[in-house]
Specification:
Elements: H1 19-26, H2 31-44, H3 50-54, H4 69-82, H5 101-124, H6 126-144, H7 165-179, H8 182-196, H9 201-211, H10 214-220
Helix pairs in contact: 2-5, 4-5, 4-6, 5-6, 6-7, 7-8, 7-9, 8-9, 8-10, 9-10
């Protein structure tokens, strides 16, 4: 299933799924993949039916809606810096490619928050969207700098987190354009490109110029 992450489902028509086969398929997924499936399921399950799934195992008061998405992002980033997701295990030749539960949880949550940034951007506005993305970017940079955010049995890094950069980068440029001075726009836009999507540098610089105002575009011409 891993090689299909981020791709559209080629099945256009509605199909019938055998519950027993679905349960068996779930057993073959790792936690990141299971959380991705759960995230998609929550988008289609009517909210009125959710108590039937959750209330026997989770207190209702702990599941109240959080109306402040930016606060949710900041809480995740604070927990990441505190090492709340850092969970190591004894590594040997048999488990060197595995991830701890904490690492899988962190990856899934980080991916979910990036997706929500795309969905919440209009509601948040440019300033809060910029802050949310900047906070997530900073945590990814800490991971790549070797900080103890999560545990990797083997080599790992921010590339383990699937982010749809073709959508996130333009959103980043738009939020920056509305809130940053020209020099800051150049610095922040190019830093994100170099740190996370350098293989598409020229294309993304064109999009950054397109998103910027006249002064920002002029400043980018020197890059």
């Amino acid at each position: 299933m891993r090689n299909t992450r981020g791709q559209k489902n080629p099945l256009r028509k509605r199909i019938t799924v055998d519950p027993d086969k679905l349960r068996a398929a779930f057993r073959g997924l790792d936690r990141v993949e299971l959380l991705e499936v759960l995230d998609r399921a929550l988008k289609v399950i009517p909210k009125a039916r959710l108590p039937e799934i959750t209330l026997e195992r989770m207190p209702a008061q702990d599941l109240a809606p959080d109306s402040d998405f930016l606060a949710e992002v900041m809480t995740f980033c604070d927990r990441s810096r505190r090492g709340d997701f850092y969970e190591s295990f004894r590594v040997d030749s048999r488990n060197s490619t595995e991830k701890s539960i904490g690492t899988e949880h962190w990856i899934a949550e980080c991916e979910r928050l990036f997706r929500q940034c795309l969905l919440q951007a209009e509601k948040l506005g440019p300033a809060q969207t910029r802050k949310a993305l900047q906070s997530l970017f900073d945590v990814l940079r800490l991971v790549d700098a070797g900080e103890d955010i999560v545990f990797w049995a083997d080599e790992g890094g921010s590339y383990e987190v699937y982010v749809d950069w073709k959508k996130v980068m333009p959103l980043w440029f738009r939020s920056l354009s509305a809130t940053a001075a020209p020099d800051d726009y150049v610095r922040e836009a190019t830093a994100a490109i170099e740190d996370f999507n350098p293989q598409d540098r020229e294309l993304l610089l064109k999009r950054a110029r397109s998103a910027g105002n006249r002064e920002q575009r002029a400043a980018l011409e020197t890059v």
